[in-house]
Structure formats: structure tokens, C-alpha cells
């Protein structure tokens, strides 16, 4: 998604919050931002959309829970029966392909019917969804379920292949842009890892069987729509709060990581420094999650990590092959 479009939607989100919404069914409130006049979404359809979900907390007017633009991954949404009046399905049925809108949904109802608890520390009882309908696959009245399921699968596979091809083509330019934008003077290893050693630390180096205690922050190379760094995981509570990914369930402290269970790029980066050392590494996808991706990581996605080694605990087990894993938030 182009930067200008991201900024436009962020601005639209702020604008929508300042204007009156219309009353929909149940507790739904809505504001249509663009209407292309195409056939509206109905039950049984399959939708590709981009969107931003926010809540208003006691400390932040717009705390972002989901942003498909920042994640560079649109959502695919099967339109099933509504769980309650005024749910997201009800909202999406007001739109057609190319349309955009802002909706406010009741969080008590969402929690009751989804089984997921509300976020803590809320100032209001509504979540705001600002969405753009990219494509709609309509199910015709007489179309067999099996036929439409095949059509949905082919549609999704085609869209996903397009995403993969785009990411593969753009990976090198993403890394270059990140380095240029941040005016970094990096060095490269033979494998293609790029790095900056900020502090070398002591002479000790971690072996594959060792457990390292590290403070770290992992981010994508692209910035968020609000201009902030796009952090996906961190052991630093202040950074987590600033990035809007803070979780009251996480333990924000140095974390123990068994080196041979991590991705090759992370292993190589850790082994560049000793205890007390700090390093910034830029991991190309071939040294990270590769062509398949994983979790929130898209295929062919380069990653940036800032790492500080607090201690190294020696291991005794025989080394095993490195797995394409990265640190994940502690619960």
C-alpha cells in the first residue's frame, strides 16, 4: 500500500472521530466515507479488505489494535450470519467493492459473542473500524457451495501469490530504503546479514547450544502510517507502549533464548557480540522466515533487530539444526 494512501486513511480515521456518526442496527454507529454504488455485500460473499481497528483508552485517544496497512497484508473475510445486531458483518453489508466507511462497534457485545475479553483501560465502550473494501467475490443465488468454495480458494491463492511476488520483488529495495532513510553505515557478512555493532561487549561468544539472556526489539523495515517505527515484538516495556503493542500479560525483561532454536540471521547477529554488547542487524528473509513467512511475518519479509546480550549460560547438548524462529512475546 502506498504511503500516501496510508496517510489518507489515518487522516480519515481522525476526521471520522470528530464527526457525528449515523445510527445503525443495534448499537452500531456508521459513517460512509466513499460509495462507489456497486452491489452491496451479502451473506455468503467473500471479501478482501484493508482496515484499521482502534479503541480509545485512558492514555491514548487512538490505540491501534489492527492495521492491515502497517502489516502490509489485507484481510480476507467470509461473510457469514451476524452474531448480533450491529456486529462487523452487519456493518460490512452496508458496503460494496471500492467503498470505505468508519464503524463504531459495541465492545461488550463483541466480547460476549466472540468469547474474547475487552482490552483493559478503556475510556469508551466502542471499537472503531475504518475499512476499505478492495474486492468482493459474490455468491450467486443458485451457485453450489462446493463451486463457490473452489472459487474462493482460487481467488485467495491468486491474491496471496500476488502478495508473495510483490514482496520478493521489493525485498532488496526495502532493505536499501531502510538503510538510506536511517543513514546507517552497515557492514555485511558473507551470508548477507547486515549489521552495526554499537558495543562489542566482552570476548565471550555464544555457542549454538548456549542460552543467551537478551533485551531486544524486532521491527519491520517500513514505518507505520503515523510515522513511528513498526515494532512487532520487544522486551522493552517503554518501546512496547510507544509502539502500541503493550500487553499487560507480557513480562518486559531480558528473555532467555536457546541459540540453536532461532533463525540463522538472529544466531549470526548474536554471535557478533559478547556479554554487554549491542548490535543492530538487518535480516534478509533467506536468513529469517523465508518464502513462507510465519505468524505476522509475510513471505520474503526482511526484519530488523536491536539486540543487547545480558548474559550467556553455557549448554551441553549436541547442536541441532537452526529453525526459522524468532523471539515471540513472553506471556
UniProtKB/TrEMBL annotation:
Protein family membership: Belongs to the FKBP-type PPIase family.
Descriptive protein name: peptidylprolyl isomerase
Gene Ontology molecular function: any one: peptidyl-prolyl cis-trans isomerase activity
Record's keyword terms, sorted: Isomerase, Rotamase
EC number: 5.2.1.8
Organism: Pedobacter lithocola
Reactions catalysed: [protein]-peptidylproline (omega=180) = [protein]-peptidylproline (omega=0)
Claim: Isomerase is one of the keywords in the record: yes
Highest taxon above the source species: Bacteria
Pfam families: FKBP_C
Residues in PPIase FKBP-type domain copies: 209-313
Lineage, highest ranks first: Bacteria, Pseudomonadati, Bacteroidota, Sphingobacteriia, Sphingobacteriales
